[in-house]
């Protein structure tokens, strides 16, 4: 059944795949980001690594690619950029940085960007320190 639903995991996975292909071709660094382009009709290029990029409807014998929807979501979040005619997409610097981070780095980045968490974390550290004083 064709639902046209996109998940956050699909976005993350496609971003990682584009990042890995970019680093395989150009190495690390953002100097050639606009050189490594993804065409909107290139869903078949990603099918082996990401089979969920296609939805199948066995009743009507149809196959629908979700790639354009995922690319538009990534573009709305600032992780990719597109050409003037919207046919080619490539990683932005923000997308490159996001895709290159592991979970711990993303968590630390989140905490750095959301300073409201500093007070609860400081209180938690205080509680742990006080408990450590009394434990022998």
Q: How would you characterize the overall build of this protein?
A:
The protein is 51% helix and 12% strand. It is an alpha+beta fold and 136 residues long. The strands form two sheets. Strands 1-5-4 form a three-stranded antiparallel beta sheet. It has a two-stranded antiparallel sheet with strand order 2-3. The longest helix has 19 residues, at 8-26. It is elongated and about 65 Å long. The mean pLDDT is 83.
Describe what is shown at a glance.
With 136 residues, the protein is an alpha+beta fold.
Task: Set out the fold topology.
Elements lengths: L7 H19 L11 E2 L3 H4 L7 E4 L4 E4 L1 H10 L3 E3 L5 E4 L1 H8 L2 H11 L4 H17 L2
Helix pairs in contact: 1-3, 1-4
The count of strands amounts to: 5
Unreliable segments (pLDDT under 50, ≥5 consecutive)?
A: none
Alpha-carbon distance between the two ends:
61 Å
- From the helix content, strand content and strand pairing, which structural class follows? alpha+beta
Give the mean pLDDT: 83
What is the number of helices? 6
Strand content range: 5-15%
Shape: elongated
């Amino acid at each position: 059944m064709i639902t046209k639903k996109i998940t956050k995991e699909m976005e993350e996975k496609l971003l990682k795949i584009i990042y890995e292909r970019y680093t395989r071709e150009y190495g690390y660094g953002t100097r050639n980001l606009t050189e490594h382009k993804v065409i909107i009709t290139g869903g078949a290029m990603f099918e082996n690594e990401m089979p969920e990029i296609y939805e199948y409807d066995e009743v009507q014998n149809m196959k629908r690619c979700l790639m354009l929807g995922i690319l538009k979501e990534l573009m709305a979040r600032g992780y990719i950029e597109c050409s003037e005619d919207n046919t080619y997409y490539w990683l932005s610097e923000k997308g490159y940085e996001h895709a290159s981070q592991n979970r711990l780095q993303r968590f630390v980045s989140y905490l750095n960007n959301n300073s409201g968490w500093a007070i609860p974390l400081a209180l938690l550290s205080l509680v742990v320190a006080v408990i450590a004083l009394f434990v022998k």
